[in-house]
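Something for you to look into today, if you have time. I want to see for myself how the chain folds. Leave the record below and I will have a look.
***
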Amino acid sequence: MTATELGAETESDLVLAVTERAIEKVLEIRSGEDDPDLVGLRVEVTGAVGVDYQYDLSFEPLAEAGDGDSVTVQGGLPVVVPAGSVDALRGATLDLPANAAQGGLVIRNPNRPNPLAGIDLELTGSIAEKVQVLLEQSINPSLAAHGGFATLVGVDDATANVYVTMGGGCQGCAMSRATLTQGIQAAIKEAIPEVAEVIDATDHAAGENPFYS
């Protein structure tokens, strides 16, 4: 069964975009499959580590795509995103690494999981005390995977704004502002509703050896 027979979505309905160079690479790999024209690239979110999703990429017979799955054809490559991964991957891009020597594929995803999901913390005291507990017990253990950490600078009592800096591998990191905005900020505001805004006070220009380039 082909992607057309499955009723593939148009490119305007893309959940996950694939760059031309990534398409070329995947098609090259797919050519080694039995009946390559009958399989598509399946991209699934399998879990999360802190503020990053984990992914599984595999070739799957198009006939096995589910009714709720997103199926698109990009540059001759059928791309299947399982129904359960659609929201987490919407707006993401599959590409080759900027460093050609790195090899493999990379997913640039604007979405971030909630690092507090499934974690039951007892938050008491002032806003600063609550934020400190979140950072120490949930957020920083997640950021440690990237060699980074977040530090509470202070709380403006008049506005209830919280000021946080990113250090270690996160300082100077091109993705750290997105990590703070989409992951940490959302987690802090969800866990501590009285927080108005979470503001990045990091001097990113001073960062060395960022995890992302």
